[in-house]
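Researcher: Next sequence.
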Amino acid sequence: MMKKKLIFATGNQNKMKEIRMILADTDFEVLSMKEAGFDIDVEENGKTFEENALIKAKALCEVSGEMCLADDSGLEIDKLNKEPGIYSARYMGEDTSYRIKNANLIKRLEGVPDDERTARFVCAVAAAYPDGRTEVVRGVMEGRIAYKEAGENGFGYDPIFFLPEYGCTSAELSPDEKNAISHRGKAVRLMKEKLTGQS
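Model: Next structure:
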């Protein structure tokens, strides 16, 4: 049986790995934009994670004529007015390393007690179909901002995102453990239910 093509609007290999793991048992062939031969740069000017994910999915669907998924995700820190939020990737400049971004966030929370260091990772996943239909779902992982970086497994803000119930940061979880509870894992699984019609 031919697998249905599904293009994911990202060039991020870490993300592709997570998504492929979750969609491995479906009848979709999951391709990154690059693998599908597309290179589009979309201005993400939405006000929410959902809007940005939809902007990306629709733009890629228009040029490719295939079913497309896109996600927008980020870190919300309650004490910092939900910063960096939808600007997580662009926080302190796109080319700034996460080591510097993480150190800056930890510094901004200096002296803030545990119970006020609450934060969450949010991920919205949008699907755009060639017939014009769209769907969007949201996954959330709650935690706190750690006092220092720990762990080698994650990427981005994972080393400073502490999960009290696990006693470690999300960068200290194995990929399987992380997929089971992560914001992206939850959102992609919700989308998987919609795609495979298992509601």
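Model: The first helix runs from residue 13 to 23. Strands lie at 4-8, 28-32, 67-77, 83-84, 118-128, 134-145, 161-163, 168-169.
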